[in-house]
Design a protein that fits this description.
Blueprint lengths: L3 H4 L4 H17 L6 E3 L7 E6 L26 H8 L2 E7 L33 H8 L6 E5 L5 H7 L2 E4 L19 E6 L2 H11 L28 E4 L1 H4 L4 H16 L3 E4 L5 H20 L24 H4 L2 H14 L5 H22 L4 E5 L14 H6 L5 H5 L4 E8 L5 E8 L4 H19 L1
Parallel strand pairs: 2-3, 2-4, 7-8, 7-9
Antiparallel strand pairs: 1-3, 4-6, 5-6, 5-10, 9-11, 10-11
Helix pairs in contact: 4-5, 8-15, 9-11, 9-12
Bound molecules: glutamine (GLN).
The site of glutamine has 13 residues, from loops.
């Protein structure tokens, strides 16, 4: 598929034939179930949109039955920004219901398949966006990342996925999962495309009270793969990953050294604390956010009969099993008897995680870690929800600390599936993050050719 950078040079006519080509290709690959709907707004470069980002006039459902029939009455800020940059929201992509999950199996539209092996999950929750880009069914896509949902499906499908610093990209118009963790970000074919799309969607937005009021400028015009950085590796932390991931990690450390970067060893706290702090915080916030889906507002109107403006779904019919589980967990950790024991403690752990990262970033520019402990799982492999939660060990601390991070495909495992690793930077250090990522991508390309 043509890259985003190349697409920037296309004429109106060429863009419209690109869209026709894409539609045909999406129809020919419909068994992947990457897209829920193919739609188009405007005459710009087509960008696939995760089904939790508001686009005026589209049915936007966060992969949930409870939102079926709801039509978005406004554009998310990121959509306004895409349109202003001559890009077209082009189809909504499949996702785990309300972005809760790591496999894209919990969508009310059925699961999405990994384009590289149909027996495997594409990762989640932005699995539709990742599969679309990996299968050549999208030039680029937007996803959202609360605890890894951009970076992990990117790694599972062999593409680039980037989560910006918390507050860098407006959340206005993003279907909320956990508001203190959610960020929208680019999912692309390469690092440069991710930088281009990041530049378009980032920036202060008065409509989002958590938006960072700062202007650090654009990154894609200043990309520099020749910078020499100090990069921390975390050998102890990597030990829980599979052999394939550990091998790739070792290879990448060599590649980074060859590119002239300085490598230093650091340690990070046991990720079991990240899991506890994350699943308490995320479910507590989700419970609060999902309270608005009460079965009375949003969607599912019986049309044409105002008197019987009935709604078809009760909450227990409208929400799937995973969402219900999280609502219950969230209510439990917020209940008066347990609030101090769980929620307050989780916030303390969150502060410790932030402090630990701050300390490392006093000394280094980037940290290299795995994205997931394994490559893409076979369907059904994570049927126990707790096992699925544990698979998030490497991504969630980044959200708890609000840091920017990028997942880059670096190797192929013995089973033929891609291995992705991530670089993590200090808050608002996106330029350094993209420079390091481009340096690594360039170095790995050189090794292959
Ligand atoms: N897998 C994690 C969860 O289920 C992260 C999901 C996400 O980033 N949206 O909460």
């Amino acid at each position: 598929m043509i890259t985003l950078k190349e697409a920037l040079k296309l004429s109106k006519e060429e863009l419209s034939s690109l869209k026709e080509e894409l539609k045909a290709k999406i129809a020919a690959n419909s068994e992947l179930n990457a897209y829920i709907d193919v739609l188009n707004v405007g005459e710009g470069i087509p960008i696939a949109i995760k089904d939790n980002i508001q686009v005026t006039g589209w049915s936007v459902t966060s992969g949930s039955n409870i939102l079926k029939g709801y039509i978005a009455p406004y554009n998310a800020t990121v959509i306004e920004k895409l349109l202003a940059a001559n890009m077209s929201p082009f189809g909504r992509t499949n996702m785990d219901e309300f972005a809760m999950g790591s496999t894209t199996e919990s969508s009310c539209y059925g699961k999405t398949f990994n384009p590289l092996n149909h027996n495997c999950v594409p990762g989640g929750s932005s699995g539709g966006s990742a599969a679309a880009v990996a299968a050549g069914l999208a030039v680029a896509a937007l996803g959202s990342d609360t605890g890894g949902s951009i970076r992990q499906p990117a790694a599972f499908c062999g593409i680039v996925g980037m989560k910006p610093t918390y507050g860098r990209v407006s959340r206005y118009g993003l279907g909320a999962y956990a508001s203190s963790l959610d960020q929208i970000g680019p999912m692309t074919q390469n690092v440069e495309d991710a930088a281009i799309l990041y530049d378009i969607i980032q920036g202060y937005d008065p409509k989002d009270s958590t938006s960072a009021d700062r202007n650090d400028g654009t990154v894609s015009d200043k990309l520099d793969s020749n910078v020499k950085l100090k990069i921390a590796i975390v050998p102890e932390y990597v030990k829980d990953a599979s052999e394939d991931i550990r091998n790739a990690y070792a290879k990448v450390v060599e590649a980074l050294k060859n590119a002239g970067h300085t490598i230093v060893e650091k340690s990070l706290m046991d990720p079991k604390y990240d899991i506890s702090a994350y699943y308490i915080t995320a479910t507590a916030e989700a419970t609060t956010n999902l309270a608005r889906y009460d079965g009375i507002r949003y969607g599912n109107r019986v049309e044409g009969d105002n008197l019987k403006d009935t709604f078809l779904q009760t909450r227990s019919q409208g929400f799937g099993a995973e969402v219900q589980r999280r609502i219950m967990l969230g209510n439990f950790v917020l209940s008066s008897g347990y609030y101090d024991a769980y929620y307050v403690k989780a916030q303390k752990v969150r502060s410790l995680i932030q402090e630990e990262y701050n300390k490392i970033f006093e000394e280094v520019d980037l940290i290299l870690t795995p994205v997931a402990p394994r490559t893409a799982y076979e369907f059904g492999a994570l049927s126990d929800p707790l096992e699925m939660y544990l698979s998030d060990i490497y991504t969630i601390s980044v959200n708890l600390a609000g840091l920017p991070a990028i997942s880059i495909p670096v190797d192929t495992a013995t089973n033929g599936m891609p291995v992705g690793l991530q670089l993590i930077a200090a808050p608002y250090a996106e330029q350094i993050l993209f420079n390091g990522a481009l340096s690594l991508e360039t170095q790995l390309k050189g090794q292959l050719s």
